[in-house]
UniProtKB/TrEMBL annotation:
Residues the entry annotates as binding Fe cation: 92, 134, 138
Role of this protein: Removes the formyl group from the N-terminal Met of newly synthesized proteins. Requires at least a dipeptide for an efficient rate of reaction. N-terminal L-methionine is a prerequisite for activity but the enzyme has broad specificity at other positions.
Chemical reaction(s) catalysed: N-terminal N-formyl-L-methionyl-[peptide] + H2O = N-terminal L-methionyl-[peptide] + formate
Name of the gene this protein is made from: def
GO biological process terms on file: translation
MF terms (GO), sorted A to Z: metal ion binding; peptide deformylase activity
Keywords noted in UniProt: Hydrolase, Iron, Metal-binding, Protein biosynthesis
Protein name listed in UniProt: Peptide deformylase
Annotated InterPro entries: Peptide_deformylase (IPR023635), Peptide_deformylase_sf (IPR036821)
Alphabetical list of Pfam families matching this protein: Pep_deformylase
Top enzyme class: hydrolase
HAMAP family, A to Z: Pep_deformylase
Similarity-based family: Belongs to the polypeptide deformylase family.
Length: 168
């Protein structure tokens, strides 16, 4: 397994919609294992493939500390369960040190496939539901900044512009 470089805000791959996975081969398994190791090394709870420069529809997650689970989903599709929402802090490994409150659905159902192409599905709430929505957004080329209220977005962008990691 390899720890891969995480792409940072400003990299065009982060705003590119990832393509459906059609080949469930050894390369996909290596990607998933590398993504899990990269996420762990970075201290994240989720990581989408385009965050490591790969435009394939797969993300990994580890919400086990919060009652969720650890794993991966290939070609995820989610839908809300009910209309309850959660409004809470959200950050992103591709936008270091920036955290803002984001409104997300409280409960979701996600379906997709595992690394071997077998169908999987689960219902999630809380942090796990937030993670599913956040990482699915990544696969659609949407950063959490687009989900912020205007004042919060301005504040986050001001922080990004002076961040040492941001390539001016």
């Amino acid at each position: 397994m390899t720890i891969r470089d995480i792409r940072l805000f400003g990299d065009p791959v982060l705003t590119t919609r990832a393509e459906e996975v059609t080949e469930f081969d050894h390369g996909l398994s290596v990607l998933i294992d590398d993504m899990l190791e990269t996420m762990d090394a970075a201290g994240g709870v989720g990581l989408a493939a385009n965050q490591v420069g790969v435009t394939r529809r797969v993300f990994v997650f580890d919400c086990s500390d919060d009652g969720g689970s650890r794993g991966h989903i290939v070609n995820p599709v989610w839908e809300p369960i009910g209309k309850d929402i959660q409004d809470g802090p959200e950050g992103c490994l591709s936008i270091p040190d920036i955290t803002e409150d984001v409104v997300r659905f409280e409960k979701v159902k996600v379906s997709g496939q595992d690394r071997d192409g077998n169908p999987i599905s689960m219902e999630a709430s809380g942090l796990m539901a937030r993670c599913i929505q956040h990482e699915s957004d990544h696969l659609d080329g949407i950063l959490f900044l687009r989900r912020l209220e205007p004042a919060a977005r301005r504040r986050a962008m001001a922080e990004i512009r002076v961040a040492p990691w941001f390539a001016q």
